[in-house]
């Protein structure tokens, strides 16, 4: 099994200035913060990066900034997803993917395809590129759940190397872990459930909170992967309140407030999202400084 995308990946936010423009200095600083915090790899332009509100030119600028700031220190994964199969294929084929280990592509949202539709969608993406593809199942956002059976069917495609599984259905996760091919990565997409998933045989996490508390969260994951469950769960239980705060008013408002408190970047988001409320900000501040 490939070890490149094992451990703790983080879905980077896109920092903004007060006027709504991209804060490239903040983004560069965030990359450094994650590298220094012993994160294992970085995911660019995922949901947490507010990619749906970025123009094509802004997306390319974010990619360029992360590549330059990273200086080949950590493996990179690029989010390319949506609900128009043809448009995703066009984007995959038009982008320079040479700096990326893999593409992370979410289950199509809003259309609510059948399981066969989901399979054929990913089959088309697989045939359109030689790049490795990581599936991303997040029913709470997409309105469609990719079943374990569909995931395992897709796992037979040569360049589909894993899944970021963000369902809260533990039985579904266990079915995938039980019957996955030998080299197929199962990566948690839920910060609170990442450690239980690892202890059940999973390969790590693509995290939101990990970029806000990189040292603590990545240490928890390393301990879990090493079979040191007791020590790992001690860290998880300490972090549970801040994990809750990160998602209390939606993602990435919470994590951006955490990053502001840690002096990494400002907390501005783009509409239709809004900044964390004063009450949530106070809870985050109290947790981080207590």
Automatic annotation (TrEMBL):
EC number: 4.3.3.7
UniProt keyword annotations, A-Z: Amino-acid biosynthesis, Cytoplasm, Diaminopimelate biosynthesis, Lyase, Lysine biosynthesis, Schiff base
GO biological process, one term: lysine biosynthetic process via diaminopimelate
GO terms for MF: 4-hydroxy-tetrahydrodipicolinate synthase activity
Record-marked site positions (Part of a proton relay during catalysis): 47, 110
Pathway info: Amino-acid biosynthesis; L-lysine biosynthesis via DAP pathway; (S)-tetrahydrodipicolinate from L-aspartate: step 3/4
Location in or out of the cell: Cytoplasm
Predominant location: cytoplasm
One Pfam family here: DHDPS
Catalysed reactions, semicolon-separated: L-aspartate 4-semialdehyde + pyruvate = (2S,4S)-4-hydroxy-2,3,4,5-tetrahydrodipicolinate + H2O + H(+)
Classification via SMART domains: DHDPS (SM01130)
Positions annotated as active site in the UniProt record: 136 (proton donor/acceptor), 164 (schiff-base intermediate with substrate)
InterPro entries registered for this protein in UniProt: Aldolase_TIM (IPR013785), DapA (IPR005263), DapA-like (IPR002220), Schiff_base-form_aldolases_AS (IPR020625)
PROSITE patterns for this protein: DHDPS_2
SUPFAM superfamilies assigned: Aldolase
Source domain of life: Bacteria
Residues that bind pyruvate: 48, 206
A GO cellular component annotation in the UniProt record: cytosol
EC category: lyase
Subunit structure and binding partners: Homotetramer; dimer of dimers.
PANTHER family (alphabetical): 4-HYDROXY-2-OXOGLUTARATE ALDOLASE, MITOCHONDRIAL (PTHR12128:SF66), DIHYDRODIPICOLINATE SYNTHASE (PTHR12128)
Role summary: Catalyzes the condensation of (S)-aspartate-beta-semialdehyde [(S)-ASA] and pyruvate to 4-hydroxy-tetrahydrodipicolinate (HTPA).
Record protein name field: 4-hydroxy-tetrahydrodipicolinate synthase
Provenance organism: Aquimarina intermedia
